[in-house]
Amino acid sequence: MDNLETFRKDTRAWLEANCPPEMRRPMLTEEDTCAGGRHWVFQSDAQRVWLERMVEKGWTVPEWPREYGGGGLTRDEAKILRQEMSALNCRSPLNSFGISMLGPALLKYGSEEQKREYLPKIVRGEIRWCQGYSEPGSGSDLASLQTRAEDKGDHFLVNGSKIWTTAADKSDWIFCLVRTDPNAPKHEGISFLLFDMESPGVSTKPIVLISGASPFCQTFFDDVLVPKANLVGKLNKGWDVAKYLLTHERDMIGGMGRNADNRSLGQIAGETVGTDNGILADTMLRGQIAAYEIDALAFRFTMERVGDMAKVGQAHPAVSSLLKYYGTELNKRRMALVMSAGGLDALEWEGERSREGRTARAWLRSKGNSIEGGTSEIQLNIIAKRILGLPGA
Amino acid sequence: MALVLNDEQTMLRDNARGFLGKNAPIAHLRALRDKRDADGFSRALWKDFVEMGWAGILVPQEYDGLGLGYVEAGVVMEELGRTLTPSPFLSTAVVAATAIARAGSAQQKKNYLPRIAAGDLIATLAVDETAKHHPEATAMTATRAGNGFKLRGAKTFVLDGHVANLLIAVARSAGKPGDTNGLTLFAVDASARGIRAERTPTVDTHNAARITFEDVNAGADNVIGKIGAAWDVLEGVLNVGRAALAAEMVGASEEAFSRTTAYLGERKQFGRLIGEFQALQHRAAHLYCELEVTRSAVLKALQTLDESFDRAGAIVSVAKARTGLSATLAANEAVQMHGGIGMTDEFDIGLFMKRVRVCAELFGDANFHADRLARLNRY
């Protein structure tokens, strides 16, 4: 315990000395956190400096092994780092699919060469990754995917199309599910490939969402050559990699949507609906907000508990479905309450006063949370089958 | 502290589950109910609790108790919830022991705590006066008389009130109902002149009583803590009771849930197991999530009581509100998914619904605690 307390003290001192003040303010847009990659434009010197300093410590990915550029921290140390960063309101220096999804899958399924090639670049934010999973005809039924990768001896030839590819137009590489055996049962003919988005034959088309934003693309592959060395895991065993990676995606989406500032939703609502002796003037809304906050706090404790259970080997492998389901439904509820509290003001779509309709756009964006990464209904199916063991599920 | 049970706590849970499953299963509750037992609990079983140390689980070792924490008390409460076992554990070993151990004088601790640990004293908090929990609305008066006080008023839903030897009564020595200032805690002998206890049988076959105080004499040595300044002590004691009830509801709701999922895998209709129907699968999976999220909040509340007692208020309210709602959902879904048989007295599942309803109401329902959380968060 003494060692951990020393680590906490040293970490706090280091963060205080090294995290620029601009990186301790609440984030207003997605660009306030660096996503990395060849095309990334730093929003400020502070953002660049903060990333460089954290990269040097390996703390963009505190728990990855040092040999791949990570911080080599234990779970307890990493938890302390997160706590201290949160106490000082430090922004995350780097958020990427490489960190949250591909990296863990490579650590488990990648070859030693693949780990050495890809992981350090993820740590340093040099390569931005996107995810090629869903297809126009394969949403919840992901395993029915049709993108083909034909074995051409020394390479694969990839043809097909992916959809809901997050930031495909801004990404450098893609991790992609492809069908390598069209005659096998649907789960058994899938492989997991990595390739450069600048490869000839790759093109992307952004999709405009109901929020007005285009975080996703449709991505097209037209005779794309992919070296054999870019296969992760065994041929036709990509579904195992895909499922493992999805549990990390679910953890990430489930953890979204906490208040950027530390104020409670009730206090934020007070600014628009008014207060009466310190009590929110709209008492029905007050009750709804309090009920939400009870669930949100309990969910925060659940994430803490699941982390602690994982440490002692007690976490159920399918618990990410619980976190994904509950976290995204909570976030939708939160955004609905933010809209309620904002009233007519929250309906503005353009103009400086509403910061270009920030509230309304965030509310609309939240609706996708319970669809992307496996719908809420799919998560409930998984829980019914894998955790509750219900018949025929 | 990691948000999981440690090895000793896990062992306590396993022992409690084994003991209660064997010695106090639901048939035990039914037997007490069906013979209209005068005590409403089994003194023989309570003696077993004493032998295992449970009666003194929160009593410091210097007063012959185990000196364990609220997490451990919660572990036992959860197992009592699983078997719906009635006992003075909540009233005496959890709530009253906390009040005396945390706020009592050296003399009061010496008088009462060893007797609680030995199972010789049933003690209980007398706080509620109205249909809804509202401790600052206390109207029962403590009027100065000579060197002491005269207590006058009526308390309702006093746990184990008709069998208690010692009442810890909240009375108003100053101020008016609604003020948090002016409240005083009194430890009075239940056989004192002017006290009348009327047993009020409740829906869940656990013990409660209405108690009237008609000019009951109380001396300065009957006062627990400071005169007129009991609010903080009372809040702390109630928080312990609330967290304990939350733990009991975790046990009751998880037991009801596991019986329900088992039934979904047995019952056939339309030639299929009803658990194959997605309408029921999704409801069961959703309920599972609610119960898991609740469990996290309850363990967090118990740990916070152990680690920083005075800062546990908000988290205890989260835990009590959450369990009130999720245990109610579990009980409702249990009866609904069992169909007709769930409505019969012969089948156990309805007993869970009854007990959960009482636990959800006691010491503040979900609305009370949502309001409390909103106030603590200043809105």
What structural keywords apply?
heterodimer, A: 393 residues, alpha+beta, Butyryl-Coa Dehydrogenase, subunit A, domain 1, Butyryl-CoA Dehydrogenase, subunit A, domain 2, Butyryl-CoA Dehydrogenase, subunit A, domain 3, four-stranded mixed beta sheet, four-stranded antiparallel beta sheet, 11 helices, B: 379 residues, 3 domains, 50% helix
Could you explain how this protein is built, in words?
The complex is a heterodimer of chains A (393) and B (379). Chain A is an alpha+beta fold and 393 residues long. Chain A folds into 3 domains: 2-95, Orthogonal Bundle (Butyryl-Coa Dehydrogenase, subunit A, domain 1), CATH 1.10.540; 129-236, Butyryl-CoA Dehydrogenase, subunit A, domain 2 (Beta Barrel), CATH 2.40.110; 255-387, Butyryl-CoA Dehydrogenase, subunit A, domain 3 (Up-down Bundle). Chain A is 43% helix and 15% strand. Chain A is built from 11 helices and 10 strands. In chain A, helix 1 (2-18) packs across helix 3 (75-87). The model of chain B has no long low-confidence stretch (mean pLDDT 97). In chain B, the strands form 3 sheets. Chain B has a 4-stranded mixed sheet with strand order 1-4-5-8, with helices on one face. Chain B is α+β, with helices and mostly antiparallel strands and 379 residues long. Chains A and B meet through helix 7, strand 10, helix 8, helix 9 and helix 11 of A and strand 10, helix 8, helix 9 and helix 11 of B.
